[in-house]
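Example 3.2
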Amino acid sequence: MKNKKNIKILLPLVIIIWGLLIYNIYDAFYPESPSISKNKSKKYKAPKVKEKDTFSLLPIKNDPFLGTMYQKSKRQQTNTNIKKVNQNINWPTITYQGIVSDKNAKSNVYIVNLNGMQYLLKKGDTIQNIKVLKSSSNTLRIQFKGQTKDFPIM
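Structure, written as tokens:
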């Protein structure tokens, strides 16, 4: 008796599954072609173009929020002698790739790519006349032949 109940339930389920499978296969091989409407389109009319509103800005005399006189920020003058000295030294290709650290460790290990070779360096380490001076979360300061440069993380 129990087997007849299972057959009454399973047989229609199997027939439905096979029917869906055959329908999907048939539908994949014989898809319906999309219908193309043969409505004649109206003539194209170009949209009307509005003239652009032109304006000009007036110079700012007073700060509107503080009521004080507005002053442009002055650029800090850099020492041009330092730049000339930096240009004379050919730095090797250096990329700062990241930090490796442990929660319990006091010092961090920095991943530095130097001329295609990857090194793990700590603060104060020196390799090929390159010395790691200090680091922040985004930059690494390196000294090479008496000159320093900051390298951003890649």
